[in-house]
Amino acid sequence: MRGFLFLLSASCSLCLSLSGQGSHLLLLTQGDGAVSAAEGEKAKPLAKASFLPKNQKISVRPRSGVETLSSGFQFRFGSDTRFALNDAGIELNEGSLMVRSRKIDNSFTLKSPEAKMQIRGSGCFLMEVETNGGIKAVTVLGRLDLIDLKSGEAFSLLPGELVFVMPGGRGFGEKVSINLKKLITSSYLVSGFPNTSTFQSSLESVAAAQAESIGITYGAEVGDAKASDSFEVVPLELSETANESEKTESSSSTTVPSSALTFNSESDPLIELLGRSPKRMRPPSAPRISTDAPSPPKPEAEPSPRTDPSPKPEPKIEPKPQPKAKPEPKPKAESSNETRPFPSRLLRSK
Predict the structure, then answer these.
(1) Which pLDDT value is given to residue 273?
(2) In terms of CB atoms within 10 Å, which of 110, 136, 186, 256 comes out highest?
(3) In degrees rounded to 5, what are phi and psi of residue 237?
(4) Model pTM?
(5) What is the rounded CA–CA span in Å between residue 205 and residue 199?
């Protein structure tokens, strides 16, 4: 298929040069292709290997695209793009297009609802109509020279550079650098169409060269230009650098004690200052524990003598020996001697 397209483009290059610079030969259609409609007529689909009509509204259908070949140029029109061709160039009313120029001297005119500029240079460029009617231009390969035909201001772009052509002849906006690797992989006009091996290798080499020269990338991309003198900067959802930073933050958060996580640093500034929970405010509990520690040995010393069997016999000895010692016969003996009627002496005297 690629060989056929190459032969077809080579054979038609002579015809294009003879027919004029504004003629576009339809090489490739994707999806539902495109339709053209003249004033007061119904829209007709564009056929392959046919020249696009001039001074007619051409609309690319949603989720579709077309690729054309002109003298020294190759154009790709994206989905939902409305444009018209004339002898001077292209009138881009809505949508986007990609331009590949093979010669440095090539030039054409691009007109939007609120801007008009002349494009010169060789390489690969992307153009898009903004909400405010201006044009956004990006250089992917080569060098692009722009001239605002309303203000006369000139501007040059190198690969990876973006600029807005402001509406109403207000000139160019500030130059912005973008990530070519993300642009090439995400752009339907660049990667959605079949590319030759040489063109694909050129895209990869320029993206690698930019990545080596620029070591820092930002998690944002250039959005739409709705106002007349400003444009949007849309942050990306998750860039690789953002993921790495989140991982480092999550790993560092694990070092924080779990008790400190239950408190808000806003409600208690001491936690933010000291990095720990308010349990540190309980120092009086430590001396209470120390005073209780010596108290238990006191009762431990008391039960030791109670368990000794030595004091138990003492109360038994006190009352019992007294009644045993009561039998004193001395007074009873005296009474017995007095009651005796006849002592032995009297008997002997007789």
Answers:
(1) 60
(2) 110
(3) -70, -60
(4) 0.60
(5) 10
